[in-house]
Every structure is written in C-alpha cells, then in structure tokens.
Hints:
It is a single chain. By secondary structure, the chain is α+β, with helices and mostly antiparallel strands. The chain folds into 2 domains: 2-332, no CATH class; 348-497, Hotdog Thioesterase (Thiol Ester Dehydrase, Chain A, Roll). The protein contains 8 helices and 20 strands. The strands form 4 sheets. An 11-stranded antiparallel sheet has the order 6-7-8-9-10-11-12-1-2-3-13. The protein is elongated and about 85 Å long.
Amino acid sequence: MTHTLMALGLALLVQSTDTTTFADAATEALIVQARHRHAYQDSLVRDYSATVRTRIDVGFGRSRFARVSPILAHETAARISWSLPNDLKVDVLGQRAASALPSADIEAEFDRPWFIPRSLGDSIRMVDDELPTTAALHPLAPGAEAFYRYGITDSLTITVPGRTVRAVGVRVEPKVLGPSLIAGNMWFDADTYEVVRLTFVFVGQYTWVSPDGSSAEDSADARRGNIWAQRIAKLEADLEYALYDRVYWMPYRQLLQVTVEIPWFLNVKVPIRFMTTFGEYDVNRSVLPKFAVALDSTLEQTDLGEHWRRRRSGLRCPEVATLPSFPHLLFRMPPQVSTFSRMSHKPFIIDEYVRWSDVDQAGIIFYGAYVRFFEIAETELFRAAGVPHGEVFDRFDMWLPRVHLECDFMFPARLDDRLRVAAYITRFGNSSIRLNFDVLHLKSGKLAAAGHEVLVVTDRTDMKSRPVPDELRECLEAFSTSEAEARSHLFESVRTEA
C-alpha cells in the first residue's frame, strides 16, 4: 500500500496529465504501475500444473428476449503443465457431451487450448487462438495508450485468509478506431497492481474478418465483412484470477460468449458459451513439461501497437505471431518478454530450527512459539540495516513498543524442522512501522505461518507517539517491499539452493 500511495501522490504533482487518455493523474499513475507489473508478473511464475475444466454450451431462442433453450453441452477435463517461455502440455482426463437433438453427433477436438494458460501478454485472443480473428490489443501493452482511454471508477475490499485485498476498478474504452480492441472494465490489486479481473467486449475493424492481403481493397472487404458480422454477433469475455499462496494471481475462471442474433425473417438468438475453470494448482515446483518433439523457439514478440499504427496508416506490415501447428496437445505460444526488472528491495531472511521448547505434547510447534521466530528475524533485520537494537533506542532517544501482533497458521511444523523466515516492512506510517513475517517450511516447500506486527515510535519520557525519525526510515527502507515481492524472493531462495 505504501508504494500505491507514493505513486498516486507523485502523480498528483504532474501538471501535464493527458486528459484524453487518462481521466486524472491518479489513473495515469495506476496504469503506469500496472503496465510495469503486467510485464513483471510473467517472471514470478516459472512453471505450474493445474486441472482445467472446459464446458461449451449452445442455446437457442426464438427472439432476443425469449427464453433460451439448451441445445447441446460438451465438457472436457484435463491436467495441464505450463512453463516458461510459454510451453503448455495438456493431458485430457475425460470428455462428455449431451444434446437436446437426438440425431446430433457431437465431437470436440482438443487440439489447441481453449483457454489462456497464463498471462495475456500484449494481445487477447481465446478459444483455439481464433477468437477474435485479429488479436485484440491489451490495454496494458506498450503503446496501448494511443488507442485507449482510462478512468478509475470504483474500489472494493475483499478479505481472504491472511490478507485483505483492495481492488480498484478502471474503465477502458477505445478512443480511436483500431483493427481489434476491447471495451470494458479492469480490476487491479491496489497493493501489487496485478490484474485480478478483466471484463470486456471485443470491438474493432477486424474483429470477425481479417484482410486477406495488404492492399486497400483487401482492407475494405474485411471492414465490410465486419460491419455485417457486428450487426448479428457479439463477442464478450470475462477473465478472473485467484490469489494462490497469497502471492500469485493465477487464472481462475475464463468465460467467452458469442451471441448470434438474426432479427430478420428468422428472428432467432443463438448464444455459444465457453467456460473454463482452473484449480488444484502446483506452482513453481520445477516439474517441467516433457515434450515428445523439439519445438521451434524462434518466435519473436511483435510490437502490436506499432503493428496497428501501420495498419491505420495503410502500410504493409508483418502479421502478428500466432500459435504454430504442432503435434496433438503440445503447444508453444509466443514468448512473454519481461521489461520490468525486480525491485532492489528484498526481505531479510533467516533460518531457524523448531526446538524442544517450541513444540507441544503432539510434537507440533505451538502458536506462541512463532513469536520467537519473529523476534529473531526482526532483531537481525535491524542489525543488517545498521540500527541494532542495542543502539537504536539511545541513538534516536525513543522506544519502539509493539502495539499489534497477528498471525495465520497454514502448515504444521514439527520438532527439528528447519524454517525460513522472511521479515520485511510493508508500511511506514507517521509514527508506526508495519513489519511482516512469512515462515516457509523448507522440507515441504509450503508456508507454515504468516503474520505481522505494528511498532510505534514513542517518546522515552511520556510514551507518547512521535514521527518515525527520517534517518531510521532511510535505514529500514532497504527491507521495504510488498508481500508478493517478498514471497517471491523467499520461494526463489529455496529454488536457488536446489
């Protein structure tokens, strides 16, 4: 939250905010940070496996407002393995189908992914990499501000185990005509700038039909085809992410709906819905997909903003990279390129064993013992920052009492287990310091506990609070970071050792 307030505060000082692109300076600051984070998030997750379930529903109605009756449904369950740069292996576990039409022969070939397995990258395209026909420019892609208008609309607070997430909503609308764009709403985690939900409709000149060539006649034919298609069809999507391990925003639910309405003569409505859900995640376990054939790794990231600027000016340009054709269920999507380096601030990390005095009769660490781990981590953090507890109180003529402490317990540590504790500062108040602790159980690779404490600077005479000394703040700033960043470093420290 500290980084959020700093960014928004700095933005308010900017006098030249582009009001045709950003509703206000706060919106501009949020989008700038979110764009950096959008690129950076790709590097947090190196690999994962998950179970995905995709359901296709087709309905039929006699008019726009009539009740829609189901015609058919098809479900697929699969186990997927994903790894950088953007490799995907799909093992189909089972399929089933049902139809209201007795004579219908339902077949669905799962030879391309019907979902977005990880980050969207700089473009948006779903369902077998075919919808929309021209990949839509992502609002956080480089150069996207030339095509979109942004404005903060609302915020909400979501409470999850061990964390409270404040989500900020941003309305995204095209400000110019483009080949393929979106219009809708994005929701960001205010602490990390992660996209947690994206709802939108596809719009643009080439949403349904792409030019067959680079000539003006080809472009005109495609635009006419799209105008006709947009009269009867609508393409909308809803992408949701869930917080895994309180660190990674992973795909949770992806919905794409194509609605075809033919009001003339037939007066019918046919909605087709693709719904994919993700679950049973294993993240960063270094269990990489094993491919039967070597895949081409020469795909290059295309600057979609430049691509569309050339399209608008009528210049010939190379096509955007799409999924190549590979053997059944083996995929390599265009590689994701991170342009945002990691923050220089890191948590302070210690290792400590669970000792005899820490466990209860069952041999499991009892809740109060974690205070000892927190105390060791805090003491060593202050020492590493150059303000050891043996000097800091006299040096700044103050006390630093703890006024709040809370902890969540996720995994049972036992006698002689080695725990790794990350200590880091997530907030500087006027007179307070919030110090977070994450405890990693090294043998299992799981978080055993997570907590935080609030320290308040007080006068040594009357114990009244006073501002945090600037010099103390500067010393501790080296260990100031976000929860997501700190946990990334914590898990990374284990992988580095391995």
